[in-house]
Specification:
By secondary structure, this protein is of the alpha+beta class. It has 17 helices and nine strands. The strands form three sheets. It has a four-stranded mixed sheet with strand order 6-7-8-9. Strands 3-4-5 form a three-stranded antiparallel sheet, with helices on one face. Strand 8 and strand 9 (303-308) form a beta hairpin. Helix 3 (112-125) packs antiparallel against helix 4 (130-145), helix 8 (231-247) runs antiparallel to helix 9 (253-263) and helix 9 runs parallel beside helix 13 (376-388). The radius of gyration is 33 Å and the shape is elongated. The chain starts with 9 loop residues before the first strand and ends with a helix.
Length: 438
């Protein structure tokens, strides 16, 4: 007579079976994937739904995961489920080794999207500029396009990082344009910050900082030496700017280029320059006409510095003309108008919809018409080179402070790097040293 088997009865050789027996964890299964159980959860459309269960090494709590393949379909084969269980078991063993050696438990639940979201919140909390946030977002674009990206941050390996670097070097954008070495370096540096944030604050990255830095090493970039335009080239640029402003008087490219050329300030400092001090922000840059000076806040140096207008008389007259032709209450920014000038960045908007100017296309047209290949930062290096080799810049310590440069950099890259004509070397104004007329 056959024995009937019930949940409370006996079967086979009389071994009792409890209702809560964990299936899929026989001795053979334990040898294949220790610490991970394969379980039958339910049936959907007549097919088994398999899940894996494991104890999290960090929280010591049991977790389970529904098994799906790359196409999002449920895994219904026990053989396929075993492969998932073996991979998860390996992760658990690696994690236990890290914890035993003093490492922190890794959070395996955080996705790339969540990591990026939390890091962006941290950037905003620390009052990083919107330009900085957009630069990071550019890195996220490459990260999302990367075909070799692991499914979760905690699965990232050193080999993956090396693969990302190869991907950047082989990337081709519109018209098969490759990324420049400096663009690659920028993306890599942003990725390092993201990964180290995930490692320190979220514990979702297993790799340590040294491995991250070694794997994401684009190599030493060639050093670009400062460029100093000659007097004829400076005059050609200003001449082309004057012609442009006659056709487009609202853009005022000439005053902007003349200001950069004669003061040697950075582009961002000129973009946010005000006609007068508002007093609402300690990090303002403004023109002090009564004190015959320009006060600049250097974001790079995190302090103010002063540029004298007494040795720049023609520039002072030009700035006064701009002030007298404007309603400075409605347009407080010298080159931007209602809001700061934005050359390469997205323009800001006021509550009533007003925006600052963008001279990007205008500057491109002036460069094209002048037939001089230059960058805006070349005007700064030109100013430093001419002044460092003139009588006006004989006190190099004072000149370094006015330019916001390190003294050693001024000596290395600018002093004794150009032989000026005697008339220019002995000139009493910066316009005379440069040999330009505005």
């Amino acid at each position: 007579m056959e024995q009937q088997v019930t949940s409370e009865g006996r079967r086979g050789r009389g071994r009792p079976r409890a209702d809560n027996k964990r299936r899929g964890y026989s001795v053979q299964a334990h040898n294949k994937h220790p610490g991970v159980t394969i379980a039958q959860e339910s049936r959907v459309n007549g097919e088994l739904v398999l899940v894996i269960r494991w104890k999290d090494p960090g929280t010591k709590k049991w977790k389970k995961a529904d098994l799906r393949d790359a196409a999002g379909e449920r895994v219904v084969s026990r053989n396929d489920a075993e492969r998932y269980a073996e991979n998860k078991s390996k992760e658990i063993q690696d994690e236990l080794k890290r914890i035993a050696s003093g490492g922190r438990p890794t959070d395996t639940t955080i996705t790339w999207e969540k990591l990026i979201e939390l890091h962006t919140e941290q950037l905003n909390t620390r009052n990083r500029s919107q330009k900085t946030v957009r630069d990071y977002q550019q890195t996220w674009r490459f990260l999302n396009m990367w075909p070799g990206r692991p499914l979760y941050p905690h699965k990232l390996t050193e080999a993956d990082l090396e693969g990302f670097l190869r991907y950047l070097r082989s990337y081709r954008g519109k018209k098969t344009k490759a990324l420049s070495p400096h663009s690659i370096a920028a993306v890599v540096n942003h990725l390092k910050v993201l990964l180290n944030y995930g490692r320190r604050h979220l514990s979702c990255i297993k790799l340590d900082s040294e491995v991250i830095g070694t794997a994401l090493n684009p190599g030493k970039l060639p050093q670009t030496m400062p460029v100093a335009l000659d007097t004829k080239e400076l005059c050609a640029v200003l001449k082309a700017a004057k012609k442009h402003d006659k056709k487009e008087p609202d853009q005022a490219v000439f005053p902007f280029l003349a200001f950069l050329m004669i003061t040697g300030c950075r582009r961002g400092e000129a973009e946010r320059l005000r006609f007068s001090r508002s007093g609402n922000d300690e990090k303002e840059s403004w023109i002090d006409f009564e004190g015959n000076r320009i006060v600049l806040w250097g974001k790079k140096t995190s302090r103010h510095r002063v540029i004298s207008l007494s040795i720049r008389p023609r520039l002072r007259d030009l700035l006064l003309e701009l002030r007298d032709s404007r309603d400075t209450a409605a347009e407080p920014y010298v080159f931007g108008g209602p809001l700061p000038l934005a050359i390469g960045d997205k323009r800001e908007k006021t509550e009533d919809g007003k925006t600052g100017k963008s001279l990007k296309l205008a500057l491109y047209e002036v460069r094209k018409k002048s037939k001089i290949k230059y960058k805006l930062k070349d005007l700064r290096s030109t100013n430093a080179t001419y002044l460092a080799n003139s009588d006006l810049g004989s006190n190099l310590y004072s000149l370094a402070g006015e330019l916001g440069h390190d003294y050693a950099v001024l000596i290395k890259h600018y002093a004794n790097h150009r032989q000026l004509a005697e008339k220019q070397r002995k000139a009493s104004t910066v316009e005379g040293v440069l040999g330009v007329s505005i």
